Amino acid sequence: MTASSTYRFRDSLRIGGPLRALSAVLLGLLSGCSVYRSMPLNTSTVEVALKPPPIEAVKIAAERLDHPLIKAVRIDGEGGFTPDEIAIMVVIVSPQLRALRDERGLAQAQVVQAGILPNPQWSQSADVPRGNADPTLVTGRARGFGWDLGALLTHHDDVAAAKATARSVDLQIAWQEWQVAQDARLRAFRIASMQEQLPLERGIEQGLADNVTVIRQSLNHGLKVTADLTAATDLYTQTRDARLALEQSLLADRLALNLSLGLAADAPLQIKLPESFPTLGTDAEAGSRLLSGLEKRRLDLVALTLGYQSQESTLRSAVLAQFPKINLSVNKANDTSDIRTRGWAIGVELPLFDRHQGAIAAAKATRQQLFDDYVARVAEARAQVQQMLEDLIVVRTQLDGATASLADLQPLADGYQQAYASGNADVIAYRDAQAALALRRIEQSRLRQALLELGVGLEIATGRSLLTDSITR
Predict the structure, then answer these.
(1) Is the alpha carbon torsion for 316, 321, 324, 327 positive or negative?
(2) pLDDT band at 469 (very low <50, low <70, confident <90, very high)
(3) CA–CA distance from 172 to each of 68, 167, 176, 214, 432 (Å)?
(4) Which residue of 159, 185, 269, 419 is most buried, as measured by CB atoms within 10 A?
(5) How far apart are alpha carbons 202 and 191 in whole angstroms?
(6) pLDDT of residue 10
C-alpha cells in the first residue's frame, strides 16, 4: 500500500467517526417521534362505535358531568325519564356530539404547534484531497450551527392566539351541547303533548265515522239529503288527515330523539312530565331581568369574544412579522492546508417587496368581521327574547280563553250525554257535542305545548333556567 493510499484510508476513518456520531444523535432524536397506528374503517368498527353505552354507565356519567351550563343530575329512570334527564342523556351519548367534540383535539394540536420554536440547523462537511500525493494536505472540514431568530418575535402572539382559539372552541362545543340538550328536551315535551292529543283525535275521528254511517242510513230512509252526507264525509276526512299528520309528527320526533340517544328507531322510551311548571313573567321588569348579563351567559357570545381576542393576537403577530427575518449561525472550519478558522454569519431578509401586506390586511378584515358578527348576534339575541316575551303574552291569553271555554263546554256535553241516554237527543247531536269538547281539549294541550316551547326557547336565548332548575347550572 502506498503512502498516499494509506493516508486516504486513515483520513476516511477520521471522517467516519463524526458521521457515526451524527447518526447516533439523529437516531436518539427520532426515538421521540410519533408512531403511525392504523385505525380501520369497516363494518365491525362502525358497529362497535354505534353501540350505545349501558344505561348504568350513562347514569354514572350524568352524576359526574362537568359542563359550564348543564348541571350534573341523578337519573333514577323509574316510571320513565323526565325531559331534563333525557337532555342530559343525549349530551352524554349522542353520536353527533361525539364527532363535534373531536374539534377539541384539533384546537389543542394547534396550541402545541404554535408553541414549538423552529429547529436549529447543524451542518458538517468534509473535503478529502484526491489525486495529490502531497503528505502535508489534510481533509478540509466545516461545521456550522444556525437558528432562525425571527420566530421569537411572533411566538408569544401565536401561542396566545392558539390558546384563545382553543378556549373559544371549547365554549362553542359546550354551546352546541346545550343546544342539543334543549332540542332533545323540547322533543320530549312535544312527544308527551302529542301522546295526550292522539287519543282525543282518534275519539273525534271515530265519532265522525259513526256519524257518516248514521247519516248514510238516514239518507236511505229519506230522512237526510245528499248534502248532509257530503258535509259529514268531508268533516270526517279532515279529522282523519289531522290524526294522520299528528301520528307522523309523533313518529318523527320519536325517531329523532332515539337517534340522539343512540337507540334503535323502534326502541320504546317512556316520558314523565313534572306536575307543574313555574309561570314565566312577561312584564318589562321580567324582560329586563332576562336581558341582564346576556352576553356573559350565552356561551356562543363568550366564544365569539375569545375568537375576537385570538384574532387580535393574530393581527399583532402579522404586524410583528414585518420585521426582517434574521438567521444567526456560527461555524468552525479548516481547509486542506490545515488553516483553521472560526466565524459567524448573520442573514437578514430585505423587505423590499413582501412586507406582509396581504396577511395584515386579511387579519384586519377578519377582526372587523368578528366584531360585526358579535354585534349582530347580540342584537339578534335581544330581539329574540323580546319577540318570545310578546308571543308568551298571546299564547297565555289564548290558553286562558280555551281553559275558560272548557268550563262551558263540559256541562253542555254532559247534558247531551244524559239526553242521548234518555232518548231525548239524537246520536249526531250527542257526538257533535263530544267532538267539540275534545277539540277544545286538543287546543288546550297544543297551547300548553306552545308555552313550554316558548319557555325552552327563552332558556336557549338567555342561558337561564326558567322552566326547571334541574338542568341549567
Answers:
(1) positive
(2) low
(3) 11, 9, 6, 61, 53
(4) 185
(5) 16
(6) 47
CA angle 146, 150, 155 (to 5 degrees): 115
Structural domain boundaries enclosing 307: 64-127+138-462
DSSP 423: T
Return the C-alpha cell found at 330. Answer: 456560527
154, 320 in Cβ contact below 8 A?
yes
Furthest CA-CA distance within the chain: 138
pTM of the model: 0.74
pLDDT at 8 over 50: no
Q: Which of 384, 379, 423 is CA-nearest to residue 287?
A: 384
288 part of a folded domain? yes
- Is 9 among the domain residues? no
| 12 pLDDT tier (thresholds 50, 70, 90) | very low
Phi, psi for 366 (deg, rounded to 5): -65, -40
What gap in Å lies between CA 373 and CA 68, rounded to an integer?
A: 23
Tell which residue, 454, 442, 22, has the closest CA to residue 205: 442
Planar angle of CA 354, 356, 361, nearest 5 degrees: 130
**Is pLDDT larger for residue 224 or for residue 409?**
409
30 domain-assigned: no
